[in-house]
Every structure is written in C-alpha cells, then in structure tokens.
UniProtKB/TrEMBL annotation:
PANTHER family: TRANSLATION FACTOR (PTHR23115). GTPase component of the Pelota-HBS1L complex, a complex that recognizes stalled ribosomes and triggers the No-Go Decay (NGD) pathway. The Pelota-HBS1L complex recognizes ribosomes stalled at the 3' end of an mRNA and engages stalled ribosomes by destabilizing mRNA in the mRNA channel. Following mRNA extraction from stalled ribosomes by the SKI complex, the Pelota-HBS1L complex promotes recruitment of ABCE1, which drives the disassembly of stalled ribosomes, followed by degradation of damaged mRNAs as part of the NGD pathway. The gene is HBS1L. InterPro entries: EFTu-like_2 (IPR004161), GTP-eEF1A_C (IPR054696), HBS1-like_N (IPR015033), HBS1-like_N_sf (IPR037189), P-loop_NTPase (IPR027417), T_Tr_GTP-bd_dom (IPR000795), TRAFAC_GTPase_members (IPR050100), Transl_B-barrel_sf (IPR009000). Pfam families: GTP-eEF1A_C, GTP_EFTU, GTP_EFTU_D2, HBS1_N. Residues 258-482 form the Tr-type G domain. It is found in: Cytoplasm. SUPFAM superfamilies: EF-Tu/eEF-1alpha/eIF2-gamma C-terminal domain, HBS1-like domain, P-loop containing nucleoside triphosphate hydrolases, Translation proteins. Gene3D superfamilies: DNA helicase RuvA subunit, C-terminal domain, P-loop containing nucleotide triphosphate hydrolases, Translation factors. This is HBS1-like protein. Keywords: Cytoplasm, GTP-binding, Hydrolase, Nucleotide-binding, Phosphoprotein, Protein biosynthesis, Translation regulation.
Length: 684
C-alpha cells in the first residue's frame, strides 16, 4: 500500500495527468516477460523488391517536363543543384498544383531565393485567375495549359464525389447535408449545398472554415486564389475551398449517436481469448448457424472440437488478410451505445509485438484470465503473460479494463475462486496504475457462452453474482476523448501496394481529421503526398477523424519511403522526426542496472526501434518529481529518471504534454519490459 501511495503522490506536474499513472511492479520478485528478444523484434518491415519500383506518378508529364525545364537553361552544376533544392522545397509547399516550368522560371528569376520564387508563383497564379475571370471562357481557353491544369486539379481536389458514409458497415442511402464548393465551367464558383443549402448556410460554412482548426494545406493556398477569382468578395485568408464539414456533428451522425471504442483482448496463452470473443460474436449474430456448424464439424475432424468458437476469429482474420484493406484481426460489432472495433492478436509466437501494436491503438482492454486451478496461477506468476500484458496496456495509455474471469465452468462457478482471483489481480492492477473504479471483473465461460451477451440465468452464478455480463460491461466503458480539434496525425501500422497508381497505408487516426484530396506529410521521410481515397471498415468514405482505423490510398509518393511507424501529419503543423530525445521514465522490475550506453528496444506506437540510452540525466523523487541526483552512474528498479535516448533511425514523436498518444513509449531489453516513459524534450 505504501508503494501505491507513492505512485499516487508522484508529482506529474508537467508530464503526467492524475489519471494517467504508469505501471509500477517495482517490488515484484519475478521477471515479467516470458518472451525472447528475437521474438520481439518486428521492427520496420523490409519491402519486397517488387515494391521498390517507382510508382507511376499521377501526372505523367512531370518527369519529361522536369528534364526539359532544367536543360533548356544553361546552368552550372552548382546552380542545377540549387535549382533542384529550391524545386523540392517549392513542391513541398505547392504540391503538384503548379507546373514545373512555372516553378523553374520563378526560381531562376529570383536568383535561387526560394521564398521570393514561392511568392511570385503564388502571385502569378492569382493574377492568372483574375485575368481568366475578366476574359471569360474564351479568354480562359487562351490562357493555356497552366490555367487549365489548375482548374482540373482544383476541381478534382475540392469536389469529393462520394457522399455516402457507413453506419456499422451498412451504406447510408443519402448523403450529408454539407455545403461544398463547385467550380463551374466559366470559372465562377458558387457555394452549393448537396441538399440545397441557402446562401446563409453557405456563408456559415465559410465561417466554419475560419473557425475550424484544420490547417490550410499548401496546395490550398492556390485553391484560395482560385476561389477569390470566383467569389465576388475576396477571401481574407487561404481558406479551404474543399467541402467543409463539422466533424464532430458528422461523427455523431455517422455513428448514429454511438461512440467509437477500440478494444484489445489480452491475456495468457490458452486463457480462452479467442473462444470468448468468437462466442460473443456468434451470440451477437455475426456468424450464422450454418457456418458455426461447419466450424464445429471441421474442428471435430481436426481433433480440436473445443476450438470451434476460436475459429470464428481466425476466419475473420483470414478474410481481412485477403481483403488487404484493414489490419489482420480487426472485427466490428455494436453494443447499445458503442461501435466496437475488436482487435485480436492472433498467434502465440508473435503475441507480444502484436499485442503492443493492438494495445497502442486501443482505448480499452479485456484481460482474459483462466479461473481453473493452477492455470490462473501459471498465467499470473513467473513466465505468465497476465502481468506483462496488464503493464503493457497501462503503459500504452489504456486506463479502463474489463477482466473476464473465464472458464468459471471448470471451477463450478465458485464465488471463493472468483474472489481469490479478483483480490490477487486487483492488487497488481492497482500497482500497475489502474484506478479501482476503472476495472470490472466478470465471471464468464467462453466455451459455454455464459454471461457473455446476456446475464447468466444459472443459479450457480446468480446466487452470488448480480453484476453485468461482458457485453454490458463493454457498453458501459466511458467513451474516450477524441482529439478531433488537433492537427492530423496517423501512425502507420501497415503499408501495401494497391491495384491503382498509388499505395495504401493503414493505421488509427490519433488526432485531427482528413478528407479525400488532402495533402499529407509523411515523417520520416519528410515528403508530401495526396490522399486519393479513404476506407473505413472496408467502405470508401470522404472523410475520417480521430479514433478511426482507416486505410488511406495515397499518390505522389514512392511506397518504398514509407515504413510501419511513419507518421502522416498535416504539412502545416508537422510532427517532428528525431533520433535523439529526452524522456522521463519509470523503471520496472529489472535485474541488471541501466547504465549509459544501455541498448534497448524502443516500442512506440506501431514501431519497435533499436535505441541506446545515451545519457542518464537525473534521478527524480518518486513523489515530488524533484531531482534527487544529477548524472547518476546507473538506474535501478523502481526509480524515476530523466534520460536521453538515441535511436538508430529517425522516428516521429511528440511531447507527451502536447499529444499523449504520440508521446509515450516503452523500453524492452532481453525480452522483458524494463521501463515506460514519456517524451519531455525532442532534440534532433
Ligand atoms: P487463447 O489462446 O487465449 O485464445 O485461448 P483459446 O480460445 O484458443 O482457448 C484455449 C482452450 O481453452 C480451448 O481448448 C478452448 O476450448 C478452451 N476454453 C476456452 N474458454 C473456455 C471456457 O470458458 N471453459 C472451458 N472449459 N474451456 C474453455
């Protein structure tokens, strides 16, 4: 208890919030992880060579034009390099919206002053637009390729064609009542609503463009000039010409008033995770009787009759894999008030890395423990995964937990056994940083389907248990706060080639929102691309927001540059990529003290990256956070410390105080989790 009070009394002034304490198994006498380091290393994938070929650019003219543009000027080697560098910078700002020829001229005229060149291109673009307006359609045609190109681009960028959205996988018949901008043939623009909004409404939408925190993208600077041509009143600032949406309201509509919740299922091998969730899905009607019968027959034939329900999830996993649009093992189901994305970590061998990826994207977790005698103990004590998983999810930011005390049928639904498990686990979970009120214990039988979607009627249970069934508990989790108002951030969990000209990435949107046609910056490699399509639960959508697991189709970038762990962000408010940062860490139960130069595996969001502890800056007082020792020689279990970490390759992260989700990480060594930390300073 004393230790617990210490944790609570910790001064989290700048880095931690009161309800966001870290795992603290510091006095445990056992190593918390059973896995090996090799098992754990799943760092950024190597791309098959087929992926290395440069993807066909969206605009075929570019390469030819590029060499022509440059070679038509007599430049020295140094000047050519300067020009290339300026063009690269300009492309980052302007995207693909301005032809290379125009940019080259501007750079040369400005004598390689990139800022001046940018200004002149932007001024030129808006001049062009003004002239076009003055001279009407005929004049517009005469203005040549630049203008035509811009119009085409802008039209395709700003007028999303699809307006359908999905509610739990079903297509909505009608679109949103949202205004959008149409650029008409004659170059005049009118703000129209898809359902006939009044002029007043249209104004309101422009107002929203000013208020909405969504930053204006570089390419939209050009769009804004376009808009100023078309609207009689000049646009004050480079507002979004794109369809404007009130994301919060649209989210409400899309989800039918339901909250989105990402749920990860964790627990020791064979605790019954797959059976429990498979049976739950079956009872919810996600698997028809015939399919279930097939699983029963097949699993019987394979001599694994008891695995029939577990096959429900495996089958779903396979389907997802074949569909190549979402992460493996994601299933969706609904409760009364929530839409749940269930993340299942299939396969035992890679369980911990998978679990970390899942947990990094989860809002809440179900911890499944086996109530059978000896089995709970095996999972909970030395070498078991129950403790490690508990600590990991908490360190990754999960604060609410449902513990399914499973296989209760094996212990005749005994209240004493249930209580014994609750008290053992409760103590540990408290130490790990879970608030008592945020942990619920549900007696279940995954195999028998008892107490899963309806309260059990069995007298063995009802005589002592009056609490919720598992589904009710899932429904009563508090909805997480979505950072819709913050700049866009998505951490890549998978990358693959699609059939078209671009490629796809999947991941959870951690902050902000995104629309088809947006430009995004990838960090690393610090390059921009365009969002050609967004899919949510395999359905195409126009936009998606924080909390959504999406698949994005991207163009204008080479797939080879993107790895798992890259962060896509808004180019105006980019995330920083660095190899050196400072952090406050809490050291778990370690046997070997940490010294300067200590090698670790840094687990951050979906990435695991080799890193070194470059400096030990200070040891902090556990309760007050004050520095108790500067430049310590080593760090031992249970200590709080300020350290500097160096990664081998750049990773994109944020300060914990700005973006919690992108500012926390874990350190592992030799197959054990040795510390959890938060980023306090990004160096370089
Ligand atoms: P996982 O490794 O945690 O996903 O566990 P599985 O779902 O694969 O289950 C492991 C074994 O435990 C299988 O043989 C299941 O049939 C069995 N099992 C799962 N839940 C229960 C339960 O509630 N009662 C009993 N008696 N067996 C169960």
């Amino acid at each position: 208890m004393a230790r617990h009070r210490n944790v609570r009394g910790y001064n989290y002034d700048e880095d931690f919030e009161e309800d966001d304490l870290y795992g603290h198994s510091v006095e445990d006498d056992y190593c918390i992880s059973p896995s090996t380091a090799a098992q754990f290393i799943y760092s950024r994938r190597d791309k098959p060579s087929a992926f290395t070929e440069t993807l066909e650019e969206e605009y075929g003219y570019e390469d030819k034009e590029h060499s022509n543009c440059i070679s038509s000027h007599e430049l020295t080697g140094v000047e050519k390099a300067q020009l290339e560098s300026c063009l690269k910078h300009m492309r980052e700002v302007l995207g693909e919206s301005v032809p290379e020829k125009v940019m080259v001229e501007a750079v040369l005229n400005s004598k390689f002053n990139v800022q001046q060149a940018l200004d002149s291109v932007l001024a030129q673009t808006s001049n062009q637009n003004m002239k076009t307006k003055d001279t009407g359609i005929a004049g517009k045609a005469a203005k040549g390729k630049v203008r035509d190109f811009q119009t085409t681009r802008i039209e395709s960028d700003i007028v999303p064609k699809v307006t359908k959205m999905t509610v739990s996988g079903k297509k909505q018949a009608t679109g949103f009542e949202v205004p959008c901008v149409t650029v008409e043939e004659n170059g005049h623009s009118t703000l129209i609503s898809q359902k006939g909004l009044s002029a007043g409404d249209a104004d309101a939408s422009l107002g929203a463009a000013e208020i909405l925190p969504k930053p204006t993208l570089p390419s939209q600077t050009v769009q804004a000039s376009e808009e100023s041509t078309l609207a009689p009143t000049p646009v004050k600032r480079s507002g979004k010409a794109k369809q404007q949406i009130d994301v919060k309201a649209e989210l409400e509509k899309r989800q039918g008033g339901k909250h989105l919740l990402n749920l990860v299922v964790i627990g020791h091998v064979d605790a019954g995770k797959s059976t429990l969730m498979g049976h739950l899905l079956y009872l919810l009607g996600h698997v028809n009787k015939r399919t279930m019968h097939k699983y029963e027959q097949e699993s019987k034939k394979a001599g694994k009759a008891s695995f029939a329900y577990a096959w429900v999830l495996d089958e779903t996993g396979e389907e997802r894999e074949r569909g190549v649009t979402m992460d493996v093992g994601m299933t969706k189901f609904e409760t009364k008030t929530k839409i749940i994305t269930l993340m299942d970590a299939p396969g035992h061998k890679d369980f911990i890395p998978n679990m970390i990826t899942g947990a990094a994207q989860a809002d809440v977790a179900i911890l499944v423990v086996d109530a059978s005698r000896g089995e709970f103990e095996a999972g909970f004590e030395t070498g078991g995964q129950t403790r490690e998983h508990g600590l990991l999810v908490r360190s990754l930011g999960v604060t609410q937990l449902a513990v399914a005390v499973n296989k209760m049928d094996q212990v005749s639904w005994q209240q004493e056994r249930f209580q014994e498990i609750v008290s053992k686990l409760g103590q540990f979970l408290k130490q790990a940083g879970f608030k008592e009120s945020d942990v619920a214990y549900i007696p279940t039988s995954g195999l028998g389907g008892e107490n899963l979607v309806t309260r059990s009627q069995s007298s063995e249970l009802t005589k002592w248990y009056e609490g919720k069934c598992l589904l009710e508990q899932i429904d009563s989790f508090k909805p997480p706060q979505r950072s819709v108002d913050k700049p866009f951030r998505l951490c890549v969990s998978d990358v693959f080639k699609d059939q078209g000209s671009g490629f796809c990435v999947t991941g959870k949107i951690e902050a902000g929102y995104i629309q088809v046609g947006d430009r995004l910056l990838a960090m690393p490699p610090n390059e921009t691309c365009t969002v050609k399509g967004i899919a949510l639960h395999d359905e195409p959508v126009d936009w998606a927001a924080a909390g959504d697991h999406v698949s994005l189709t991207l163009t204008g970038m080479d797939i080879i540059k993107i790895n798992v762990g890259c962060v896509f962000c808004c180019p105006k408010e980019p995330i920083k990529a660095c190899t050196r940062f400072r952090a406050r860490i809490l050291i778990f139960n370690i046997e070997v003290p940490i010294t300067k130069g200590f090698p670790v595996l840094l687990h951050f969001q979906t990435v695991s990256e080799p890193a070194t502890i470059r400096r030990l800056l200070s040891i902090l007082h556990k309760s007050t956070g004050e520095v108790t020792k500067k430049k310590p020689k080593c760090l031992t279990k249970g200590q709080n410390a300020l350290i500097e970490l160096q990664t081998q390759r750049p990773i994109a992260l944020e300060l914990y105080k700005d973006f919690k989700e992108l500012g926390r990480f874990m350190l592992r060594y030799g197959g054990s989790t040795i510390a959890a930390g938060v980023v306090t300073e990004i160096k370089e």
